Each structure stands twice: as C-alpha cells, then as structure tokens.
Amino acid sequence: MLCINENDETAYAFGPVPSRRLGRSLGIVNVPSRTCTYDCIYCQLGQTTNMTLNKQPWYDVDTIIESIAGKKAQVRNLGKLIDYVTYVPNGEPTLDVNLEVEIRILRSIGIPTAIFTNASLIDRADVQQALQRFDRIIVKVDAIDEEIWRKINRPHEDLELGAILDGLSEFSRRYQGNLETTTMLVAGVNDSTEELERLATFIEQLNPSRAILSVPTRPPCENWVRIPAEKSLTRAYAIFTNHIKDVELLAGYEGDEFVLSSDVVGNLLAIVSVHPMRKSAVKAFIGKAGGHWGQIEKLVESGELVVVPYEGETYYLRRQKNKGED
Ligand code: SF4
Question: What is the SS3 assignment for 211?
C-alpha cells in the first residue's frame, strides 16, 4: 500500500485483491478516509469526519497514475492480469476534482475501470461527465422515501433526494457502460414492503445489469444497526426479482471457498448465499448434482440453511448473522 502523504493514513493504491464481483481488482482510494457527502448509519469506516459537498484535488494526479501503472507492471511480471481498476468507497470518490482527468489517463493505460459511488452528486454535469468514462459503476440506492433516506444515509444538509434520483435517472439513460445498483438493507429502517416496492420500482427504470441487496455484516457505524430477519430478506429478494432481472443478495457469505468446490452442499450454500432459492429449485439442483434431500434436512437442522415461507412459496436461504453472533 502506498501513501501520498506520510501524515495521512489514507492510501491511494492497493491490491490487486480478489473480488467475486470484479475479479482481480486494483483499488484506488482518491479521497481521505471518512470524507463523504453521507454519514451512513452502517458505514464500516465509522462516522464521517469530513462531511462536505466541495470537490477538491485531494491527491496529486501524477502520483496516483504512476502508482497504478507501477502496480500494473508488477502484476504483469507475475504473469497475472488485472480485471479492473476500482475506485473504492473509502469516502465519496466523486468529491475528487481530478476524477475525470485520472479516468482519462487510466483508460489510456488500458485497464477496465470501475467505481463505487453513493451518487449524491450525480445531478452535477461535471460528475456525470467523469462517471460516463467508467466501464462499470456500482451506485448506492438505499432509500426513496425522504425520511428513510435521512435516517439511513444521514446526508449533508444541502443535498436533496429529488435531485439525486432525477440525476440518476437521467444519467442511466445516457450511460453506455455497465451500471449496477447496491442497496444496503437495515432492519426496521428500509426493509418495509412499501419502501422495498419503491426502491425496486425506481431501480427498475435505471435498467441496471444487476441490483445487489446487501446487509451490514461488518461492524457498522451505529451499534444498533441490525441485519433484517430472513423473512424480510426473502421479501426484499422476491419484490426486487418482480421488477429486475438479475438480483443478488450479498449476505456476507460470499462463499469464495465454496465456489470452486465439487461438493454439492458447498455449492448449494454458495448459491443460496446470494440467491435465495425456491424449494423446487433446491430439489432440481440436488437432483442434478447427484445429492439427496437428506443433505438439505441436515443443513436446516444445523441452522446453516433457513426455510422461509413467503407468498405461497417456500424459500431456502443461508442464515444471517449479526455482529457478535456465532
Ligand atoms: S456513502 Fe459510503 S463512505 Fe460514505 S458514509 Fe455511506 S457507507 Fe460510508
């Protein structure tokens, strides 16, 4: 990890790290840690210490680019490839005034680029212009209702939700790359049927390649934040899949250790970690993989797998754990 400023703990280039979603990803941190337009209740960085809407040149562009180019060469010398250079959410990356300059140079290096953004500044033309240049954008949409938005994202006082949602809609119509959404579900905050319907309806018209539902599995900023119960997660998944073709529930068991396994149970657990399955689908999977139903019963008995009835269907999903649970 390299630091641009010895007095600043924030690094600007790291990795590559393996990521289930982005393959081998080289991370860029382009704003100091906890510099953000939001102060989300579930933020794993802790409370936002620099809440701002002012874009700044936080770091020197040349140094960022040199470190990325250096990393690329190192990785190539090891005979490996980098799938993405990714701006990671160490704060809000669109607060970097040099974002567009950086992305233009990075594209000329020839590595696909990705960014995680909370989209709070997406109503600004310059931010849209920079984001247009990314190959892949993962955009946060946690709430459509104003009160819920204020509760979960605790935005800067000058931000307006209507402008953000309009900006996102407008941007999605023109953006040619791969747009994904990510929604953090917090128990009792944004997991009601009404808000889930609003979220799914809004996200549907963004036409994302995938909508990701996640839960706060890492220690959150506020210790009262909880993962929704399995029934709520199943409801969220079902509502989203009514609107959006590709929905993933990232519930903390990304299951990398299972993905390459030839083991029936391991593979099933890896799948239900992200896609709750209906009983008929579980039966089909087990049959195809040469397993037997007793294996499923055993997983249910041990608590690894949870059975949730929802709207006349029976769903199987992996058990969720809050911080501190076994
Ligand atoms: S937008 Fe991301 S970095 Fe900012 S407070 Fe929320 S979770 Fe933390």
Answer: strand
